[in-house]
Amino acid sequence: MAQQKEGSSVDRPGEYFNGFAGYLKGSGRAEKMYKGDQFVQTETARDIFNSLFFLTTYGLEKQDDPAITSYWASKGLKKEIYDIQDSSRMWSVFTPNGYYENYGDGHKFPLVFCLHGNNNNILLAETYGFAELGGKEGFITVVPWADNEDIILDEVPRILNILREKGYPIDETRIYASGFSKGGAATMQVGINYPDLFAAIAPGGANPASEVGENDETLKAMGPNMGFTAEQFKNAAKYKMPVMFFGGTCDNMPLSANAANWIKISGAVAPDVTKETVANITAHSGYGVERMTGLQFNLDQMEIKANDDTYYYTGSYYNEDDVCTFRVVAVEGVPHWLVKSEAAEVWKFLSQFARNKETGKLLYTN
After folding, report:
1. What is the pTM of this model?
2. What phi, psi does 279 have (nearest 5°)?
3. List of domains in the chain
4. Mean pLDDT in runs of 10 for the chain (366 residues)?
5. By CB count within 10 A, which of 29, 146, 151, 304 is most buried?
């Protein structure tokens, strides 16, 4: 579980942050022994609060404030918001500053679609860590208004077309998607439907979507991004889509048996995954990575490392070319909220891949 550091109290005034502290205290899954009072005193919680305080203080109507421009410039980024008049279609884009000076005239940037969670918005998604990381690592971050799952499939190509028309320097072979909670579900949605577009995806804070029948009533009840047909999974698997699931051990970890279909999509070689194997591994495995993720791994496929004030439990499966194309990262003690350092883990995975736009073939870039 996340460890409390001495003197690390969260010291942000105001009703909003008192309310958010209350949310974090109660946002873990009760059966997973989440200790919210301890979590809100950690450096991880402080970092979340500080980001939220700055980026939400100004609101959408004040995003041209010099303080906002200066903040993102200090992160090496230029921020722009489009379609701000339409609350269901607005989106923001973060481009590394000075790309002509620092990268050269013909340089093209990878692009990450960052999809926000339910009841979040594009400002909250800015605090997920991807935009800031793009300034350091040199990639463009696009944050669509993803609250309406019915339009996300339209938004991805619409936004890409606008970016192309405006001449944004996009590396078309390196387009990725990641999101959290409902945005994690939306990440699966765009990945399944556009497997030829994305080089890799990383859903966070969401359980793997299940397989359902063509006319299954549960599909309609769950929404279009929570279940997919066997044909959709089969088609996506043709493209060998790398997939990384991530989240907290007091949230969506361990994964459900639905992970089996996503392992197939990635082209990775792995043991069978069933409800029985997940339950048995979670309850009885002698290895922390297996207990935290619910999946079985070889010793050389597991890693535990300290990150911020907690621990990351990582399990990896490899394809026939010995490339890791399926990864799961469980963050100990973390509730239903994305921690900034998770973005760095996601990027480390995503950035290894590209996709040939003519053949659709997956390419390994490292």
Report:
1. 0.91
2. -65, -45
3. 49-364 (3.40.50.1820)
4. 43 62 81 83 78 74 82 89 82 80 75 88 85 92 77 91 94 96 92 96 94 64 66 94 96 94 96 96 96 97 91 96 97 87 95 94 88
5. 146
